[in-house]
Amino acid sequence: MDLPEALGSLKPTLLIYQTLSTPIWVFDFEAMSVIWANSGALELWDAASCTELASRKMGRDTTATVTDHLTNIRAQLHRNTSYFDRWTIYPRGVPRHCFLEYRGIQLDDGRDAMLVECLGQDLHSNSETLRSTEALRHTSLMISMYSADMDLLYCNPAARTMLPVQLSNLADHFIEPLDWKSVQDNVTGTDQFQIEALVNTATGPKRHKLHFRQSRDALTGQNSLLVSETDITRLHNGARDSHMQARTDSLTGFANRLYLHEQLAEISTRPGVSVGVIYIDLDRFKNINDSLGHSVGDKLLVRVAETISQCADKQLTLVRLGGDEFLLLLESVEDYSYLTALSECIIDKLNSPIAIDGSMLRVTPSIGICIYPQDAGDAETLLQHADIAMYQSKGNGGNQYRIFNDQMLVDVKHRTQLEQELALAIKHEQFILEYQPRFNIDGNTIAGAEALIRWKHPVRGLLYPGSFIEVAEETGLINELGDWVLREGARQAAYWNRIGLGIRVSVNISARQFSARSFVDDVKRVLHDTGCPARLLEVELTESMLIDDIPHVAAVLERLHKIGVRTAIDDFGTGYSNLFYLQSFEIDCLKIDKAFVQSIDKPAILNMILSLGKMLNMTVVAEGIETHDQLDWLQKNGCNELQGFYLAKPMSAARLEKRLAANTKASKPTRTIDLVDA
Hints:
By secondary structure, the protein is an alpha+beta fold.
């Protein structure tokens, strides 16, 4: 079937329509022409082909009345899904009086069009002549006439072939009592109507579209009912299958987002109904996809869906929203108790490892719970609030559930406002760096400084990273922020070096920055642009950043080492410490997390890290020194560098510069003059 390009997305539907004998065609409002027609429509329009029919420019001879009527139909279709009309068409100048059903569609290029179906030709108009009688005999449309008592009076050959031999009353044509009742309810109140129904035919049950019109028996003059029928069994079955496929997740076989929205829309129209939802998102699922591949990830999602369904009874609907997000839908929920018990079951079952392709994988869920109508006034808000509660769970570490409350909305509003302000702050350069000195083992000589970002908020004053870095990471703004910190830290190190106060400046790098393929090139560009010697720049990474993509990590660290930039592992001991990567990667420095420094009464881990650094020839830096006892212990046990509030708090570049200058002056040897020799 050749189709105009604008009908490409409708091809599956039109393929089905092509098999029907009922005349069906597509009319383009803007082109004012029929751009596709099935064989029945080509016969009705007396056209040799779709191409020939489309070439007829129907708009050339269209009267103002017809144009106005088409405009009205178009407007009706914008308001309703279908529209019925009685219309006379003039194929090759010959009038044909038709009962038509219009359905609005949109072409692939966005233009308005309509799908037109001829439900029958008007046999009682002024054109009811021998010609129309002959046409009635030979049309493939099944047409029959019934008396006021619904007894069969006449049927054309097409209907005669279709109707069972024993059928004598219209009631016997219908299989479902409700369909027959619908006919009875409508037949006395309207001039014409239509239904779709399961009917008895000579070849068994079929799905038909039936159009009913009040008429008169030409022989007796009595009221009668004219019925035209089309067999839509294949179309109905195809539509039903298509309907189900469109509402089923292709990966897991459970319902999808479209089905969920339709169910919620239908449920929310019922008075007094309550609906509970459990919104589920898997924690750190991306790591599995990235490390083991999407094939393993997809298999895991299928098993997760099956695991979740084991907790749910038949009253619940499990929906895969997409990616690693799922939702359970339950009607008639009185309180949160059942939903929380169900959430606990899901958490408990997912805590057990799942075997996929020889790997034992464990994923944990973050869950949000919400109930309509007490937590939300409509279906869309219900999903939003459940999503917000889920993110509260994820923000608190995951593997837990949260019940929605109004304070969460306040938090989200604050967070959204913070996102907007953060984007503007980057644009308007509202950030500064403070520098916290790192001292040599003597506790007096400054060996370097860590660059720490601060936000000079125009309303809230000076903000520290804890109040905005997480938002920056989630929104992707961390890339711009991290690039600025890297460049500004290198610029400051270059300046201090030029004035004879050269110290190493360390800069914290985000996971997003480090994973970018251009990261090393970006560092080289910053060094070139600022004039900073590579030996005076150190990048600080977290342990978790070193395990996501080991080949990439190894290559990046090797390239940084070759250009002379040092690397340090921040908060060492709290993440995924692994002797393999410590030995294999080009790492220059270990920074002991302050939690271990502040627990010198249990020094086992401190001793281990100090020994490890010495064996691997790495500089060991102790962070978070807050007391003299901590400093004394670290000095006695050979820690290379020291950092903490006890020694110096973060300070402005200008203040640190003065301290560096003072240290430099104090360290210069004093020249003495021998007066005798003089």
